[in-house]
Write a structure and sequence with these properties.
elongated, Substrate Binding Domain Of Dnak, Chain:A, Domain 2, mainly alpha, single chain, 0% strand, 105 residues
């Protein structure tokens, strides 16, 4: 694994945890948008990128760009809610998107 991926790996791991917390907290509650569905997709995208980074895949840049897009989508939806877990999730998603764009550059 390359050292340049370290920040993105940590950001993806935090994003996965915060998305799962948000998903758990939102389970069974009505939502005005795609939250918590977007949390599932975001956690899955981060997990896929983690696998690509740890195997030093030739497709890391493409996965990173897609992961950044999905993280931004999730952050947009979570930010619309005022729950603490949604706000935390949105912050993690934004940080992860930024880390993803850095490795895709």
């Amino acid at each position: 694994m390359k050292a340049i991926y370290r920040n993105a790996i940590e950001a993806c791991q935090k994003c996965i945890v915060d998305c799962r917390i948000c998903l758990t907290e939102m389970a069974g509650k009505e939502s005005m948008n795609d939250c918590p569905k977007c949390c599932i997709q975001c956690a899955d995208a981060c997990d896929a990128l983690l696998k690509m980074m740890t195997s030093d895949s030739a497709y890391i840049k493409q996965y990173a760009l897609l992961c950044a897009e999905i993280c931004e989508y999730c952050a947009d939806h979570c930010e619309e809610h005022k729950h603490e877990h949604c706000i935390e999730c949105a912050k993690s998603c934004r940080a992860c998107a930024e880390a993803c764009r850095k490795i895709a550059a």
